[in-house]
Each structure stands twice: as structure tokens, then as C-alpha cells.
Amino acid sequence: LQKNIEAGIGKRSSSKPVLSLVAAYAYPNASVVTMEADGWFGEEVYCRYFDENRIEIDSPVKSVVYPEFVVYCCSNPLARFMSITEAVEESVMQVVPLLNRTVDDPKYSLSLCLSPLYGNESKWILLAELIEHYKLQGVMHFYVYIKDIDDYSRKLIDDYIETGEVETIFFSDKQHRMGKDWQLAGVKDCLHRSRYHSRYSIFADLDERIMTTTNNISLAEYVFILNLRQVCCGYTASGSILLSIRNVCETKNSFQVLDMWVHRAMAYFPGYGHCKASANEAILMHYRFSNDEWQYDVPQRLLNYGTFETWHYPEHLMRRLYLNIKERLDRVYGNSEHKLLV
């Protein structure tokens, strides 16, 4: 950790707001607390431990914020809640439940970490299409991070929660920054939320659709094949744009990615690296209007991944995707004006 801090890996230029927390995770050899607060990279803080009655136990333990939004702490088997403070004597204003991730027996084979939703525009149709697309790809569970969501779209999310396919993580209103700047806070937390909870995790935005181009196999099947090849990599890339599949290999040490960025891993634990998949194996479809001027102002760093081209959704999946979306929307909204026709 100290080596990466000194190298400034993953550091962002931002002010240091008041601490506010997202969650805490207990692993076999350490605990982790994730934060909403930006700008604390490399700062010394103190890990605080609490029992089931939220009474503090043991002395605070000094640590450091790294990666951004993340604090690694010593394990405490008696702790049920945790907090982070800037000073030993500082009053604790917020505690978060300590989620048990001590057993390497994932509930899900493949899950998806969705970048935080923000803004007041309606999101229901993209959400339904995203979830139903990835279900066809073998995704079993969705971690959905929310900063802002309209009431109509919330009805759809609530229905997916009822069927056990989605869990939601809501950010508080304690931090004030642009909606898109919440993306990293969600990514950093989901790296830990999915660890030991899902064997593999995809990181994607609302307007991205990842799929294979090999023999009509699903992403779940593709990742299984990678595992048979004993490919231990933090992420894989498709043709022109990076797609992030965190591959937790069948080894004693399942920790691979130390620091996850929006579309790439910034740092790995010792012994791990990354691999790339060509466009002959997997692609990422990024929704854009055909007349969008974005295509004429593409950052050079994206052009380095390869050539951009128009792509059509696979014909063998289109009908199934449409019917699955229609069934879900009819179930949630009934005979509303948005009901789809066959």
C-alpha cells in the first residue's frame, strides 16, 4: 500500500470534504471500510470497532486511505459495526454494518456492478434493457448504485429487488459534487461488495452492453472457459474499449485487484496482472446516437484501444431480449402508456 501511495497511483485532485461512509467488509485477514468522501488519498485515519449494540470495543487502529474511498483495517472478530475518524479522540458520527466476507464460497457465479445512477432524467427503459441483456449473458446478480433516480424508474428497481436479482446502494446527500463524480465511489465499493460474494464481477455503465462474439456463447460461459485456461487476470479488454471482468481465480489468494478504476484496474495484489481479449472474443457496445458529435471528439486514449464501428445487437438474442423486457415492464407498469406491444 505504501509503495502505491508514494507513487500516487489512483490519486485524484479534489478537496477533502467531511468523512461519510458507505459500508464495511470483514475478510479473513483484514477489514475494509469504504467511503463516499473524495480527496482523502494517503491521509492517516483511525479504524473504530463496535459490537452488536454499537458500543465501541478495543482501541482505535491507525491506518491510511488507499485506494481513494477505501481504508484497510485490522480484523476484529468481535466487531459488528465499524467507523473511520480523522483523530483518535474524535467523536464517532456514523457507523456502518460490517458485512461478512470471510468465507470464500460465493453465492453468485457472475454479477454486475452498475456505475452510480445520477440526474433527474428517466432511466426505466435503459435499466430494463441492461438487466435483461445481462441476464441473457448469464449474470445472476446486480449491484445497483444510486445517487439520483426518478420515481417511475424506482418502481422498476423495486420490482427487481423483490425478485432477488438486484440489491441497491444509495449514496447520501452529505457530499456535494457533480453526479458523474460519484462513479468512482461506486466502483471502489463494489469491488469489495462483490468480493467473496460473486465469483466474477463485471463493471459497466448504464449505456454499455458487453457480450461475446465467439460461437454464440454467453459471458458466463466465456469466463468459465477463461478459468479452465487458468487465466488469472484482473480485467479483460475488447477490441476498442476496455471492459472490466474481475476474475477471481481458483487459488488460495482470491484477492487480485487492489484498486479498480472506472474501466480498468489501477493496481493489483502481488502475483496478478491483466489480460486482453480481442474483438474476435468479446466486444463492448457503447450506446451513441449516429449523429452524435462525440465520435468526432474521441479522446486519444480511447482511440488507442482500436477502431470504433457501428454494431448491431445479435439477431439470435434480439427477440428473446425484447420479450423479456416487455414481460418485465408489463408486470411493473401494467396498462400504462409505456406498455410495449408485441
UniProtKB/TrEMBL annotation:
<keyword id="KW-0328">Glycosyltransferase</keyword>
<comment type="similarity">
    <text>Belongs to the glycosyltransferase 92 family.</text>
</comment>
<dbReference type="GO" id="GO:0016757">
    <property type="term" value="F:glycosyltransferase activity"/>
</dbReference>
<dbReference type="Pfam" id="PF01697">
    <property type="entry name" value="Glyco_transf_92"/>
</dbReference>
<keyword id="KW-0808">Transferase</keyword>
<dbReference type="InterPro" id="IPR008166">
    <property type="entry name" value="Glyco_transf_92"/>
</dbReference>
<dbReference type="GO" id="GO:0005737">
    <property type="term" value="C:cytoplasm"/>
</dbReference>
<keyword id="KW-1133">Transmembrane helix</keyword>
<keyword id="KW-0472">Membrane</keyword>
<keyword id="KW-0812">Transmembrane</keyword>
<dbReference type="GO" id="GO:0016020">
    <property type="term" value="C:membrane"/>
</dbReference>
<protein>
    <recommendedName>
        <fullName>Glycosyltransferase family 92 protein</fullName>
        <ecNumber>2.4.1.-</ecNumber>
    </recommendedName>
</protein>
